[in-house]
């Protein structure tokens, strides 16, 4: 019976992890928001960014984001975040929402763009 508890807990953790990092904006909506002045932010490391990124994206690694929010402009401006898998962009979204940004979207993995 104790094994079932651990299995259920593992499933719950995996489901929660998936839920938290799921994209909340489609590529089509992201492109529309960008055409209206949204900012696209890649929250991966500088080395990941330099090897490949979405054209027009600004690189602000998730571990530096809290101290660099002034680079994003007005807190009402739409911000679209992405990373390699969706985990860091989900963390970045929570960081920006806590900092008072009102229009923050998680594209998730960079591969969602295409």
Cα Rg: 16 Å
Based on helices, strands and strand pairing, what is the structural class? alpha/beta
Low-confidence stretches: none
Strand content: 5-15%
* Overall outline: globular
CATH structural class: Alpha Beta
Largest sheet: 4 strands, parallel
Level-2 CATH architecture: 3-Layer(aba) Sandwich
Number of strands: 4
Mean pLDDT: 89
The number of helical runs is: 4
Cα-to-Cα separation, first versus last residue? 46 Å
Our count of domains comes out at: 1
Helix content estimate: 40-55%
Strand order of the largest sheet: 2-1-3-4
What's the CATH topology label? Oxidized Rhodanese, domain 1
User: In CATH, what is the homologous superfamily?
Assistant: Rhodanese-like domain
Along the chain, the helix and strand elements come as HHEHEEHE
Task: Explain what you see.
By secondary structure, the chain is of the alpha/beta class. The protein has one domain: Oxidized Rhodanese, domain 1 (3-Layer(aba) Sandwich), CATH 3.40.250. The protein is built from 4 helices and 4 strands. It has helices at residues 2-21, 27-35, 46-51, 87-98, and strands at residues 39-42, 58-59, 79-83, 104-109. Strands 2-1-3-4 form a 4-stranded parallel β-sheet, with helices on both faces. Helix 4 links the parallel strand 3 and strand 4 (104-109). The chain is globular, with a radius of gyration of 16 Å. The protein starts with a helix and ends in a 5-residue tail after the last strand.
């Amino acid at each position: 019976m104790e094994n079932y508890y651990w299995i259920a807990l593992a499933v719950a953790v995996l489901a929660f992890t998936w839920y938290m990092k799921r994209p909340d904006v489609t590529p089509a909506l992201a492109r529309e928001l960008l055409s209206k002045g949204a900012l696209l932010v890649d929250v991966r490391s500088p080395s990941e960014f330099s090897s490949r990124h979405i054209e027009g994206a600004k690189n602000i690694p998730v571990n530096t984001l809290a101290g660099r929010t002034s680079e994003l402009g007005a807190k009402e401006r739409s911000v679209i975040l992405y990373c390699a898998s969706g985990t860091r962009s989900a963390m970045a979204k929570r960081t920006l929402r806590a900092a008072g940004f009102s229009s923050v979207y998680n594209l998730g993995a960079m591969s969602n763009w295409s």
